Amino acid sequence: MNDSMGEALGARLKLIRGHRSQRIFATELGLALTTYQNYERGERLPDAAMLARVAHQGWNAHWLLTGLGDERMQPVRADEDTTPYASRAIDPEIWDRAKRIVMFAVDAKNPKPGAPTIADAVAHTYNAIAGRPYDNNQLADLVQDAARRL
After folding, report:
1. Distance of alpha carbon 143 from alpha carbon 67, whole angstroms
2. Sign of CA pseudo-dihedral 73, 106, 99, 14
């Protein structure tokens, strides 16, 4: 991961953590302390499960990864008959599928794109497949679309 991107991601995690210790925040996220510290130091990108937990707290996962957009997600309106943020929670299984699709496209790229570009492509792919079945023919289209975004 590019150092400046990692440092920026770490700074955003510190902002989310606020006054809590790394240990307490890692526990709240269901992470080992060293795993969280690697995220905060920018040595590792958060996985889908961690992003889902952050999103469940109302933070915008796209902002966390890229620094773009609002820091916090907007609550769902009361007339939508759902709990706040529920419709915006990240499904870890779908996120992992989207990440695998994009990484397949990344493997074919030379030079390799930076982490913000990859994160944007993963977010787009996630939105394309969330709640929609797709077959192997469409999978090739998804990989090609991801490659165009990189």
Report:
1. 25
2. negative
